[in-house]
Amino acid sequence: MSEHVSDSAEWQSLQGLAEKFSAVHLRDLFGSDPQRGERYAAEVADLYVDYSKNLVTDEVLTALFALAQRAKLSEKITAMFSGEHINVTEDRAVLHTALRLPRDASLVVDGQDVVADVHEVLGRMGAFADKVRSGEWTGHTGQRIKTVVNIGIGGSDLGPVMAYEALKDFSQRDIECRFVSNIDPTDLYEKTRDLDPATTLFIIVSKTFTTQETLTNAKEARSWLLKTLTDDAAVAKHFVAVSTNAEKVADFGINTDNMFGFWDWVGGRYSLPSAVGLSVMIAIGPDNFRTMLAGYHAVDEHFRSTPIERNVPALLGLLNVWYDTFLGAQSHAVLPYAQYLHRFAAYLQQLTMESNGKSVRLNGDPVTFQTGEVFWGEPGTNGQHAFYQLIHQGTKLIPADFIGFSVPNHDIGEMHDLFMSNFLAQTGALAFGRTLEQVQAAGTDAKVATHRVMQGNHPTTTILAERLTPATFGQLVALYEHITFTQGVIWEINSFDQWGVELGKVMANQLAPKLTSAAAPADDADSSTNVLIKRYRSQRGR
Length: 542
Ligand code: F6P
Known about the structure:
Strand content: 5-15%
Number of strands: 13
Bound molecules: 6-O-phosphono-beta-D-fructofuranose
Helix content: 40-55%
Structural class: alpha/beta
Catalytic activity: alpha-D-glucose 6-phosphate = beta-D-fructose 6-phosphate
Radius of gyration: 25 Å
Family: Belongs to the GPI family.
Number of helices: 21
Shape: globular
Organism: Actinoplanes aureus
Main location: cytoplasm
Keywords: Cytoplasm, Gluconeogenesis, Glycolysis, Isomerase
Strand order of the largest sheet: 1-2-13-12-10-11
C-alpha cells in the first residue's frame, strides 16, 4: 500500500492516459459518439452541467473515479460534514455547510449544537436587517439609513460584494451597499466622499478583528463619522460588527450587543452564508437570504450523499485535477454570461487559490506535482473582445467554465437571445474550431488561410440554470466550494489554512515605521528594499 495518493497505481494509470491524450480531439469524440452531449451531462439542484466538451473519455472518467476512491474522497466528505477537525494545521472543524442546515437539523460538534447557534444568529441578523430596511433603525440624528458600508477584506469582503452585485435585482433599491476593503486610503475616500454620516451604517467585518486593513479603515471611518456627528454616542447607531472575536470588538469601541458572531469552524473564504453576509441580507431581505441558504444546502446534500460517479462537484473537481496535474494546465477561466456575476471570478480567486495554493501535503511532505490553478475571468461577452483570442488560438491549455441563464432578469428586445447565442457559439468554436479545409472551402485568401484555422479541442464545461435567483446563486457558490474541496482531497493538501499570507503581513508591520519616520534605520533590509524606502521617504518629504 503506497503512502501517498500520487504514488498509487490509480495515479500512474492517469499519467499513462494523459500521455496518450494529445492525439485525441473533441471532433472525434463527438463524431464517434452521437449521444455524447446527452451522456456527459448531469444535474445538481437547478443547475444543468454539460461536461461533454471536456477532454475526457469513459476510460479517463473511470480512472478519475478510481483515483477518488484511492484518495478516500467519500470518507473525507463525511468527515467534513460531521465536524471532524480536518483543518489539521489549525486543529479546527470545517463546517461552512452547517451554516446552511435547516432549523430542524441537528449537528453536535465538540459538545455544541451548532445548528441552534447558527439559527440564533440568523434570527438576530434578520431582526436587525428588517429594522434597517423598514427605517425603524435610525442613525444618531433620527434619520433612516440610506447607505450600508461593509468594511472588511478577503473573505470578509469578496463574498459579500460578489453576492450583493449578483443579487442586486432582489435588493431594496433605496438602500445602497458599498464595500471598502483596501488599505489604500482612496478606497475609503471614494466610498464615503458623497455620503452623509447621519444616514450611513458601517458594518465592520473581520473574523479575527485583528486585520490591519479592516481595523485601519474602521478607525478612519469612525473619525469621518464623528467629524460631523461630534458625539461618541453616535458610534453605537452607525457601527455594527461581524466577528468571532467579541473581546477585540469591544476593545475597538463597538457595543457587543451590535455584534453578530460566527465561529472558528467557518473559514473566511467560506463565510458568505454566515453573519459575514449581513450587508447582503440587508440588501435582499431575510427571506431571500434564507432562500439563498437553501440553495447552498441543496448542493451540500447532493455532495454529501451522492456516490462519486454521479456527484457533480466531485466530478468537476476531478476534471480540474485531470487538467491541472495530469495535462499540465496552469489556469482555469470562469466566464459567467451574466453581468450581475461580474465579481464572481474575483470571489473564486480567493476561494480556490487561497484554498489550494499549497505545496505541502497534510503530513508535511512536499507535493511532487502541480496543485492549485490560477482562476480568472470576466463576464461574457466582454471577455470575448479581450482575452478569448488567446484561448482560441494561443498555445495554452485553459479549461473554461461557461455559466449562463435561460431567462434574463430583464428582457430587453432581442438582447438576451443574442447574448446567449454568443454563450453557445463560444463553447462550440472552442471545442470544434475550424480546419484548414473548411477555411479554404470558404474561399479564404491563401495568404491568411493558416491564420484563420482554429485548432479547437479547447475544453469547456457549461453550467446552465433557468434564472439567476438567490436559490441558484447559493447553488452555484456551493458547487465551487465543493469542487475546491475535492481537488484538495486528491492532492492531500489542507484547503482550509492560509499560512502563505502571513509572512507578508509580518513584514509590512516591520516596515511601516521605516516609512513614517525619517529617524528609523533605512539600511537594515535588503539592498532593493533599502533603496525603495529612501526614495519613498524623499518623495514624501521625510
Ligand atoms: O488573507 C488572509 C485572510 O486571513 C483571509 O483568509 C481572510 O478572509 C482575510 O485575511 C480577512 O480576515 P479577517 O476576516 O479575520 O479580517
